[in-house]
Amino acid sequence: MRSRSHRHRDGKTIGSHDQDEQPAVLGAAATTPTGRRREFLTGLSVPAGVLVLWQGIILVFVLPLVNFLFTHALALAGTPNLTDRNFPRILHSPSSVLLFLAIGFIALGALALQYTSVIALVGRIRAGSEHPGTTAGRQAWRATGRALGFQAPLVAVYVFLLMPLGGLAELSPLTREIGVAPFVTAEYLKKPLSLSLYLSMISALVYLNLRLLLTIPLLVTRGLSPLRAMLSSWQATWHRRLRWPGILASPLLAAALMFGVPGRTVAWVATLPGALMKTDSHLVATLGLGAARVAAFVLMVVTTAAFIRWALAWLDRSVPGGRVIDSTESPTVHRARSPRPGNPPASGLGGRRLALRTTAGAAVVAIAIMGAPAVAAAPPPTSEPLVVAHRGWVWGGVENTLGALESAATQDPDLVEVDVQQTKDGHFVASHDTNLLLLSGHNVNIYDLTLAEAEATTVSARGFTDHIPSMVDYVRRARELGVKLLIEPKVHGHETDDYVDRFEEELASVGPLENNIYHSLDADLVESLKARRPDLSVGYTIAMTVGGVPDVNCDFLVVEQASYSKRFLDQAHAAHLPVYVWTVNREDRIRNYLYDGVDGIVTDHPQRAKTQRSRVEAHPATAFPLRDVVKHLANVMPTAR
Q1: Whether residue 516 is found in the same domain as residue 600
Q2: DSSP, residue by residue, 342-411
Q3: Residue 40, Cβ neighbours under 10 Å: how many?
Q4: How many domains does the chain have?
Q5: Ranges of the chain with pLDDT below 70
Q6: pTM of the model
Q7: pLDDT tens digit string along 111-127?
Q8: Which residue in 261, 264, 421, 547 is deepest, having the highest Cβ count within 10 Å?
Q9: Residue 288 belongs to what domain range?
């Protein structure tokens, strides 16, 4: 039997084992089937518990602190919210900038502690450490210190941008809402050219995440700086370039199975009481939804712990030099000590009973808390929410063309939304895109075309072909069809000085302006139009916002679904401002927004939205009918947004 040993350059042995023996990283307890099972379960349950603990700490302490500082930072800058358009205003307030830096430091520190503590704990348990919690705590604290050093901006880009955009947003409440806004994705899906560009970007993000997968484990277990950890991860994954895609597929496949079969089973069980009782009881709905959410959360936590365990095992085999010993321990790698006679291991029957009781108690509380929204949610509003066909019906014609308008009329929406822009000669045409490359194949801008040239431009999408109509022709045709419009004048930066005058004149040529309603992304245009015509209904459209209701003189708000929240809705309603959400196409999201009490749904599928509106109106007694829980479970599973 041949033995191997490794020595430092000073001659000290750092590890030795026989070929036929288990590696030291598994510990002595893993040498029997029972020991291996116990070690495996402990290696999952304990880190999973720590992960749950950190989720609670972030939700209860960190997020409220971040919200408090964020609100004060906005107040110091003299704005109620942060949008993509007022960000430069924030930068002019030094106090606000300092508070935002403090927010970033706090959030990054909490996130780093969450990740590093779980990874360190898994590593200590795998190593058979006698006191894994204490050792892992010290290890995580030092790793967090390195993450918050002068390379903190690099770490922030990785954990707040690259990881969430790569599909890992659900790992922490601090990153859960980070993702590509649905309206951005929708724009890229218009044509094969833009779709290929979008898929290339997504592929690049996934590839970067795979190559940097070992960054945080290396930061924790090797004591490397963030930059060196990234470079080492890149090198390690390249070293296994022929094997790591297949290796990576194993835990991902396991995760898919965990979320697939058990997830659907739990969701079905959650609906069973309501089905047997033939009722939509508030209490039963709350318990069913709470159980579904808890099950989804538990599956996510266990899968995450298993994934970390696998990553550390991969790290031991992939990075040259083998395991690295925590600097708080002796330079010699010891095997875990066998339990002494009369001293049963902590993971014995008593420990399991305590864990079972704690888990059961936590589950009861969690079911009540996570199901609370079903009870607390307000009933549907007394006024019927509006269904708005986004740019006509894009599945029946090219967006913003007469064909799409006529197809939308067959869907009988409450409103049809249309975008208009000013041409080179000061007229208006119906078009969302300023540059027409995607729809026409010509790299030309609306503001470089005359009205006649724009009307002669052929556009195509989804197998349909049409021409760009003038605003006058579009409004006239809508009037003939009996369709009311939600008109959005878009600002491209090349408008004439009398832009608003011309806009009003052209609309007045085909009927009273009050026959339709209006909205815009440009706050100045909204306030100008409202000041000139107080009788018109004019809304302010918000693409991206964080914070409260914007201080704009308008009649309603149109918010992109990624920026929507129930808190925002409540604040808007308190200010007597209706809220429309765009562009919502998924049935469950349409239904959820309607149950929240939004005043309008802007969608590419008006018939679908009308069906869901009828469904919500048919069940006013409960915010989440039990038969919706199965589909709603997909909304609480960790998925890329």
Answers
A1: yes
A2: T---TTSHHHHHHHHHHHHHHHHHHHHHHHHHHHHSPPPPSSPPEEEEETS-TTSSSTTSHHHHHHHHHH
A3: 16
A4: 2
A5: 1-44, 169-170, 239-297, 299-301, 317-383, 619-641
A6: 0.74
A7: 999 999 988 888 887 77
A8: 421
A9: 22-335+345-376
